[in-house]
Amino acid sequence: MSSSTTTSNDHSTRTQAITRQVIILISSVLAIVAAFIGSGAFFGTPIQEAAGGFLNSDSTLIAPGTGAFRIWSVIYTGMLAYAIWQVLPGQRHDARQERIGWWVAASLILNAAWIGVVQADLLWLSLPVIAMLLVVLCRIFVILRRTRPKNIVETVVADGAIGLYLGWVIIATVANATAILYATGFDGFGIAPEIWSAIVLGAAALIGIALAFWSGGRLAPAASLSWGIAWVAIARFTAEPYSPETGVAAIVAVALIVIATVIARVRHDLRARR
User: Fold this and answer.
1) 170-221 pLDDT, tens per residue?
2) How far apart are CA 187 and CA 198, in angstroms?
3) Which DSSP state fits 46?
4) Membrane spanning segments where (predicted)?
5) How far is CA 56 from CA 63, 79, 271, in A?
6) Using DSSP, how many helices (H) and how many strands (E) does the chain show?
7) How many other C-beta atoms lie within 10 A of the C-beta of residue 157?
């Protein structure tokens, strides 16, 4: 291979890497702009009021209380921090960032798309969009789990931020699906709503437990998933629709996820020391 060919290949690789970095940064800004629109802070309709109000905290038994959505500020801050960190020259050809980069950009674009379809009152379309977002985040998490961060900064801005993102989207997907079922008039086949809510929360808990043991007790996804479910409990004890049975089921789900995460973390740390 001639030196000119080698130089051309190096230039192409560098261009592709820079393009990836810039697109991730732009995607993070796009997601934050969409979030402002979705909050109704300047213009746009607040998510709770869009799409017929079916995503409001009082729409279904599985809907988290309004306070739960404060976690988006943490997630967006974390993802912006990641976008800024990964655009630095030192991360340009980092193998780990190359593997997750385009997936991260896809997750941020899907996040903005979800807000867009809800703003357009296309509730039915919000579920496939958030389902795709969940699949993308799972893919990112698998890559992160199979590779190691090189320092504490990467641990926080990559593994930590994306872990929080994943945990929250798990419970958000569940709430989204429940809202659509409610909007379509699903009657639960005659089964009491509290039983259905307990089943759904039990499924969320099983996902959290499985994630805890598979990930070696990673704290970020467990924390955000538990946060979301805890706010389901708060909403059902303090607001409409009032359902102490659902509140208790949510508390049990959180307890199981936390216990599983602690056990998994201890086991992982003990193995690492051997």
Assistant:
1) 999 999 999 999 999 998 899 999 999 999 999 999 999 999 999 999 999 9
2) 16
3) -
4) 22-47, 67-88, 100-117, 123-144, 156-183, 195-214, 219-235, 247-266
5) 7, 25, 44
6) 9, 0
7) 21
Is 69 exposed, middle or buried, given 0-12, 13-18 or 19+ CB atoms closer than 10 A? buried
Q: What's the Rg (C-alpha) of the chain?
A: 20
Which 3-state string (H, E, C) describes 162-211? HHHHHHHHHHHHHHHHHHHHHHCCCCHHHCCHHHHHHHHHHHHHHHHHHH
* In the predicted structure, residue 7 carries a pLDDT above the cut 90: no
Residue carrying structure tokens 């509290």: 194
Query: What is the spatial distance between Cα 30 and Cα 117, in angstroms, rounded to a whole number?
Result: 15
Measured distance CA(100)–CA(32) in Å, rounded: 20
Confidence (pTM): 0.93
Query: Which tokens belong to 169?
Result: 């989207």
State the residue for tokens 């699949």.
135
**φ, ψ of residue 185 in degrees (nearest 5):** 85, 20
User: Residue 83's closest CA among 127, 30, 136, 44?
Assistant: 30
Distances (CA, A) of 100 to 95, 104, 146, 147: 9, 6, 12, 11
pLDDT tens-digit profile of 55-108? 998 899 999 999 999 999 999 999 999 999 999 999 988 999 999 999 999 999
Burial of 9 (0-12, 13-18, 19+ CB in 10 A): exposed
For residue 241, say if its preceding peptide bond is cis, omega within 30 degrees of 0: yes
Rounded CA-CA distance 233/212 in Å is 21
Enter the tokens of residue 79: 């993802």
Separation between Cα atoms, residue 139 and residue 193, nearest integer Å = 33
